């Protein structure tokens, strides 16, 4: 592999693929790195090869032509590549047990989004997983969860999972909705924006109607707990109308929304901003993806969750501006080619306030019970961490130094948001004043041998 590129793109989801199509079309050498073995990201996971392409809906099927254009565009796609350090002109990544560095003139971070981890009592038990994880298994391996299933949470993936499970005849015991009716009423203020994408809005309404009509739906569920009931069985207890109740299931799917995957942008020391409605941090960037760090750009859900259509538009816009920056397009040419994508992005942004308000997470759902395991890597419970916070800890990094949450294999990916919520509540601090853990290289676990053997294009470590 060559050691110097015009553009290096981290992430081969809809944003990364669209950007690569633009940069290669205008003659820029482009390297695309992704952890997965196929392009598509989370939303279009295995879209180029899935045998279920026509069963999972038109939104998913729309990713196949994009993936095919990406694979044919001339960009070099490196699958199974874990990026573990980054600077404005150099990227370090591990692939097949070997680390290397490459230089570039522009970096595009398109790492997408992740399902918000919500530490509930029992969430580490076998049979309990995220609704998004179930979706990934269906797309990549045609695997379905064992029934009966209980779905818990608040967000569009709950509706999508309910529709898919009904389609494949997997029994659903109940759908426990944790959102508030008040959110739906507040979302009506943004109804005009919802009609900026009428087909998408009506599709969502259709999924909601199918879920309400075909499954037992329980609204206002809270204080949800899972316990092992028998080998292969789970007992789910919750508080709803009428008091405390229990359900039996083989699988529990949890979902409390989707948040930006910000570890790599924090590692790059980009400026971030707080999404108050959805309660998460995302990188701050302009329409052309430029961050606070020169030569580092972002596109897609890493800069605010807006979905696949918006991510494709953003990727194309960023790709076009990179071409302008590197002398392949004039500003007038860039603007002319960007017209359609700017219209698409405007429609997506007009709809987003409605979705963010409608699916706003309930703050109490994000406060883990004392017995819930918050840091899965170090097996630390919320009660243990709260005691240390009460003794005078005011930042996630401070708690990390004292109790080790965020120091395990996932580097705080699973516990970071919950730690911020606990510190804010215990110390009475505004959430927007508490950044997530400071990201440090390597972003993923590496063997010492990789670092010893690594040679970059410029020098050896």
Automatic annotation (TrEMBL):
Keywords: Oxidoreductase. Residues 373-424 form the BFD-like [2Fe-2S]-binding domain. Residues 6-315 form the FAD/NAD(P)-binding domain. GO terms for molecular function: oxidoreductase activity. This is FAD-binding protein. It comes from Desulfovibrio porci.
């Amino acid at each position: 592999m060559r050691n110097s590129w015009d553009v290096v793109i981290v992430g081969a989801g809809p944003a990364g693929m669209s950007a690569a199509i633009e940069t290669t079309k205008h003659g820029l050498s482009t390297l695309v790195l992704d952890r997965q073995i196929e392009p598509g990201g989370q939303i279009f996971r295995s879209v180029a090869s899935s045998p279920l392409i026509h069963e999972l809906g038109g939104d998913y099927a729309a990713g196949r032509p994009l993936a095919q254009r990406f694979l044919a565009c001339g960009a070099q796609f490196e699958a199974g590549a874990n990026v573990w350090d980054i600077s404005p002109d150099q990227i370090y990544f591990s692939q097949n047990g070997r680390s290397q560095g490459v230089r570039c003139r522009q970096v595009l971070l398109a790492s997408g989004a992740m399902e918000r981890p919500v530490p509930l009592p029992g969430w580490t038990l076998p049979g309990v997983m995220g609704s998004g994880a179930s979706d990934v298994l269906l797309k990549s391996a045609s695997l379905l969860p064992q029934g009966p299933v209980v779905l818990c949470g608040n967000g569009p993936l709950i509706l999508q999972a309910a529709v898919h499970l009904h389609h494949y005849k997997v029994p659903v015991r109940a759908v426990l909705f944790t959102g508030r009716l008040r959110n739906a009423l507040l979302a009506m203020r943004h109804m005009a924006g919802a009609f900026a994408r009428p087909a998408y809005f009506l599709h969502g309404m259709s999924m909601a109607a199918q879920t309400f009509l075909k499954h037992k739906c329980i609204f206002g569920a809270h204080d949800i707990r899972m316990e092992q009931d028998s080998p292969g069985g789970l007992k789910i207890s919750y508080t709803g109308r009428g008091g405390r109740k229990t359900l039996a299931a083989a699988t529990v799917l949890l979902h409390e929304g989707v948040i930006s995957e910000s570890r790599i942008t924090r590692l790059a020391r980009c400026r971030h901003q707080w999404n108050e409605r959805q309660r998460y941090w995302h990188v701050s960037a302009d329409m052309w993806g430029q961050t606070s760090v020169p030569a580092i750009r972002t596109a897609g859900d890493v800069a605010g969750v807006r979905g696949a259509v918006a991510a494709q538009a953003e990727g194309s816009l960023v790709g076009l501006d990179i071409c302008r920056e590197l002398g392949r397009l004039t500003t007038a040419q860039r603007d002319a080619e960007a017209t359609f994508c700017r219209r698409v992005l405007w429609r997506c942004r007009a709809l987003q306030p409605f979705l963010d308000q409608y699916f706003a997470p309930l703050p109490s759902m994000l406060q883990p019970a004392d017995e819930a395991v918050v840091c899965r890597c170090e097996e630390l419970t919320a009660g243990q961490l709260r005691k240390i916070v009460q003794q005078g800890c005011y930042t996630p990094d401070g708690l990390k130094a004292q109790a080790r949450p965020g120091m395990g294999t996932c580097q705080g990916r699973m516990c970071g948001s919950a730690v911020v919520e606990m510190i804010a509540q215990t110390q009475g601090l505004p959430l927007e004043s508490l950044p997530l853990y400071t990201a440090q290289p390597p972003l993923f676990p590496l063997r010492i041998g990789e670092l010893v053997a690594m040679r970059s294009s410029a020098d050896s470590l």
